[in-house]
Design a protein that fits this description.
It is built from 12 helices and no strands. It is mostly helical and about 300 residues long.
């Protein structure tokens, strides 16, 4: 085993260097584009370093195992995080595979201590999981920002509808007004307007809004607007009632978070504050007891 690990490390480094050389090697189209740029007298057409890295990660993603269920979950998580481009999924797969290979190479080298197979495999697994954890964190932060900005959007929707605008024009107006303060929700509303302009039904566009963001409050708002449009009830009154319901839910979430504060403070108190208090209060008495009792015990 001690002889096998250096051989595997050498083979891995050799394959990694060969793969990097093949990935960063310019293809025929890149050579033609660079030659045309040189003939044209400009350098703006030459691909930059960021584009080269992105293309390398996309090529690396072709070697990763793919399943339909996992790809759909990753695509939905990328949409929740705000990455809607077609290249987002292969780029993320390449990043995850690249992190796994990099962690495997670092863990199998003597930089982190005595290398072994278990440490190398553990490092590869950790490098494979870290990008997914970071993506989930980004998605949760974006959903939290959308959830906080929804109350202001509802107020603007109520004002716009009561002023005489239709629902489509009100959504467009609210998206423009929220562009500076709540950019995430503004982008989602602009996508709804683009889908409506492309000819998609309003119910489908609103339903896609709730599915795309993954925010339960926004999904309930979309369902309410669909039902209002279907039954022909007052949009302004429905929005006002939904706004009050949303504020009640926000107050309940705040009360729930406040109730959890006492439980969450137990661990910092036990592990950080109480030991310091014991050292300050009992420390001098313990030192005095040791100074008095140890000479008596030696006698």
């Amino acid at each position: 085993m001690a002889f096998l690990l250096p051989v595997l490390a050498f083979a891995f480094v050799a394959l990694l260097i060969a793969g990097a050389a093949m990935a960063f090697a310019p293809g025929g189209n890149a050579l033609i584009a660079r030659r045309l740029g040189e003939l044209g007298g400009g350098r703006d057409q030459a691909p930059g370093y960021t584009e080269m890295v992105a293309k390398s990660l996309k090529r690396l993603s072709h070697y990763a195992p793919k399943s339909a269920s996992e790809m759909s979950k990753l695509q939905k998580r990328l949409l929740c995080a705000g990455y809607r481009g077609k290249e987002a999924l292969p780029l993320f797969i390449g990043i995850r595979l690249g992190f796994a290979l990099l962690a495997f190479g670092v863990a199998s080298s003597p930089l982190v201590g005595r290398p072994n197979v278990l440490m190398a495999l553990g490092g590869a697994a950790l490098g494979y999981l870290l990008p997914a954890m970071a993506l989930g964190r980004l998605a949760k932060k974006r959903q939290h920002r959308i959830r906080l900005s929804l109350a202001d959007a509802l107020d603007l929707l109520v004002v716009s509808v009561e002023a005489g605008l239709g629902l489509d024009q009100a959504l467009q107006r609210v998206g423009e007004e929220l562009a500076t303060t709540h950019r995430d929700l503004s982008d989602e509303l602009r996508l709804v307007n683009l889908e409506l302009r492309a000819g998609k039904a309003r119910a489908d566009a609103l339903r896609h809004l709730g599915e795309r963001t993954g925010v339960d409050d926004l999904a309930s708002l979309a369902a309410m607007l669909i039902q209002t449009d279907k039954f022909g009830t007052s949009v302004a009154q429905s929005l006002r009632v939904h706004s009050e319901t949303l504020r009640t839910k926000r107050r309940q979430r705040a009360e729930e978070a406040a109730a959890k504060t006492g439980v969450k403070m137990v661990f910092p108190l036990v592990f950080c504050i109480f030991p310091a208090i014991w050292v300050v209060t009992i420390g001098p008495a313990a030192v005095r007891i040791v100074q008095v009792l140890f000479p008596l015990a030696q006698k």
